[in-house]
## 1
Amino acid sequence: MPDVLVDTGSSGLLLRRSALQGLKGLEPADSGEYGFRNRYVSAPEYGALTPAWIGFGQLYTQVPIGIGLLGSDGEQPDAGGGANEADGEAGLLKHFNGILGIAPRPTGCSTGADCTCAKATEVAQYYRRVPGSDGPVWQGPQAPPAYELSNPVAALPSGYEDGFVLRIDTPDHAALQAGVESGTLLLGFERWREPLFGQQAPRIPLFSSSWWFAATNGEPGQPPDLLTLPDSGSAAILAPARYKPASADTSAAPARQLPLFFDMPGAESAAPYGPFTVELAEAGSAAIEGRPLHTLATRFHDGDLLMSLGMPFFYGRTIAFRLPEDPRAVSDRAPEPGCLMIAPGPQGA
């Protein structure tokens, strides 16, 4: 299926129901027992859940896993747990047939050692359609494993299930203005690690879920001051407002070159790994005049800690994600933790 957004900030495959017309085995709309509501920052997405085999070319998941079907599935749960008639294909999927969520966490919302999701109706991601006095209503349960949204890469055969590499080409300005980007998704982590990064490339340890610690000061011993999320599903860098380019006149504010150093706890050297430069500019400033907005897209928020590294961070880089091993899958050793590896640009054959 073409036009599926690769998203390293979420887990689970979401597809337009309308793009699957004619597919054998597709359940009729309004028949699904389980539904979901993805609480993206920019827009909610609603849909039905169903188990399915997922293929990347000729490589398929070893078992069916839960996917989300968006659109034309009747009433969907709203933020308060009631129902509305909003079309699940509105919002994020306006220009895509789906979202391939491959973040380095096993499922879309599971947290903690017990791998459970929030069940309170007003905050739940998953819902079950149950009979009500005025027709079906949605309640927020823990979805059965066969229905829960999860990272499809983790369900691939051995040798491909441990992670992936995302290679995004240096931007071609004319192509970007036409809304076209080019890059490659390579499946597997260890199989590509040495050919693309060499034996000595640092592994940046995963802190939690999909987050890594980073700092804007690379001196050894300096504590990290940011939690960063490499998020290919976002078109912009989302940064704390304290990093806005300084200027009394917004229209004359320059772009800011912000160095990032990733924290390396447990490494032989205490020095953070970097710098990796992030260029920030306010919308409407003189810094972006005559330049493609894609490469400078920045939004600012009032917090101090979180920075989402959207597509401008990926341009011209090769980034590998090692998925954390499931502790239940290994018994004779410690499970492999998740990590990140970054090269300055597309490398290898």
Note: Residues 190-197 form the longest helix (8 residues).
## 2
Amino acid sequence: MLSPRYLSLLLAFVIAGVCTSFLSFLPNTDFTILFISFISSFIFGSAVIYFALDNLVFKEVNKLYDRIKQIKKKNFSVIPRKQLIEKENPIELLKEELNSYVTTKEDEVKELKKAAKYRQEFLADVSHELKTPIFAAQGFVHTLLDNPEEDPEIRKRFLEKAAKSLDGLDILVKDLLTVSQIETGAIKIDKKALDLKPLVLEIFEQLEAKAKSKNIELKLIGHPGPVLVKADYQRISQVLVNLIDNGIKYGHQDGKVTVHLEEKKKAFLIMVKDNGPGVPAEHLPRLFERFYRVDKSRAKLNGGSGLGLSIVKHIIQAHNSKISVFSKVDKGTSFQFKLEKA
């Protein structure tokens, strides 16, 4: 391949030759004039052509070549687009397109790395959460096997503890399956008109015994008439059970969990509020992450899979809405979301 130097010399030679040929047709033109004309045209032409080729063509092509080599090495660091000099020529436009492509690929690589890190953390969390109930049940069962003549009351107590650990494992596996199915779209949201009031009262009945054990009042306030929304009955029931149950679990003794139903223009605002210990501000952004717990020791005592709020977030998103959380330490926590009117 010709270098810009040799190509400029070749083109300058041709141009100088053509100029000298035309000059030779003029009268009174001797050899000395023709020679000087040829040499000066050749030198000046080669200098101008070399500068043009080297700066306008070859330098830009070399930059593109360097970028392509960087892409092959998976090095996506490029000059920011703002620093590019805007030129209306094909080489510059091609370079801009390449820069744009490389920037896109760099973002994709960053997302893949982020996803890989998230997968690793998720697998570590799942392994830990599965290990705890399995080891607990395993310990109780092996204790009974090692002591077959143990007192019947002790055997019963150990079996109950083993069963409780396995029940917790069952809840965890079901919650993991639910999250996975919602994320992959395996679970379809079947929106139908439903009245939220009877649903909330039904959930209050389900959780009444749990609330009474802490002397917590369950209260429904807000819109006087029917609260008709477009929603999936089973999934919204799951959302409300999770939120109300959390209010009871983490609420104070002799506390209160309130469900507000407020009418808006095109939707109903649903708010589940407790007067419990609240959540510190630094934990709020991560509250809907899988397995995230504000107080890990307290969460373990209260049970649960650590996936409840993550499931809630996914279900609400599947209803084309979003859930928000507001909390103040020692004042309580409030979750709220909107559902479209039926």
Note: The radius of gyration is 37 Å.
## 3
Amino acid sequence: MKKFLWLLVLLAGLPSVGWSCTWGPGGAGHAGMGSQVIALPSSLTVPPDSNPVGTVLWKTNGWSWVPTGRLDHCSAGTVIGQMSGDIGPRIGNSAIHETNVPGIGIAVFWCNLGASNCSSDPLATGSLGQGQLWAEVGSLNWSYKAGHYDPFTQFMVYLVKTGDISPGILQVGGKTSVFYGGGQYRVSDLTFSGVTTVTAPACLVDSGSQNITVALPTVAKTDFTAGSPVLTGANTGRAFSIDMTCNAGAKVNYRIDGNTVVPNVLGNATGEGMAAGVSVQLFRGGLDSNMVQPLATKLLAATTVSEGERVRIPLTARYYRTGAVSDISSGLVSTTATFTLFYE
């Protein structure tokens, strides 16, 4: 009889070594785990510049939320996070983990409350977490007392520069999850949809050089002579440049194309109000240059040595007489040229 009673005591004691909890309806009426899907950007063009390690290349638009149920009658335990198997190890003591694309890391944060109670930019804080409000998922390890809990499923994700970036296809499979009960009770899942095509062009043309309007000075018909067809006076041309930032080791070639009336001379547009007998010629260099810029010809601009090296292609536009001086009529001069870069 004593043996039977002793067995009953043992059986009654077994549940205390486990972890218990039940799902109830949360604030949004959902009862059960929260499952979030975040779409990766379809493409990511990384500028060839000197942006430091830690530069944010992409992030979600704030905290991304989905409904999660309430956990009732929970015994004391811990909240832990588990990164997807496709996400690499943490880089140092930061919140950033390696991805499959060299030079790009990923940081995933989870928030346990409404967005107004969470940091608007957790990565910028330099912290892995703040109390029991939010945390980097891979370092998540909170203790909690027995009771009722209404966790939120809110994630914020960053893609971050971690070094020299190689072109490739960034993808993150599997699930990144948050558990209560030290890993026994899954409450939040995050999966990523799509892939990101990462391109790292050898050079990035400055925004001010992508569409250039060169306003030539106003000149008179009497400025042209029967000698040189080119107006070479200091006040009759206009210098401009095509500027860019390039990666190290880039062999940068370029070509300029356009409608020509004579070799290496851009033809003037025709129609009402347009001048006749005058076009435009480009020169390599500044206003003092007499080196004609060949058209439809690939030329070497520079071979870069350092990362983020600045490359400038200086050019000058001048009026060009295409016939006899007597054939020139007053009007507007308008030409168009296309600039193409080649990298080796």
Note: The chain has a mean pLDDT of 89.
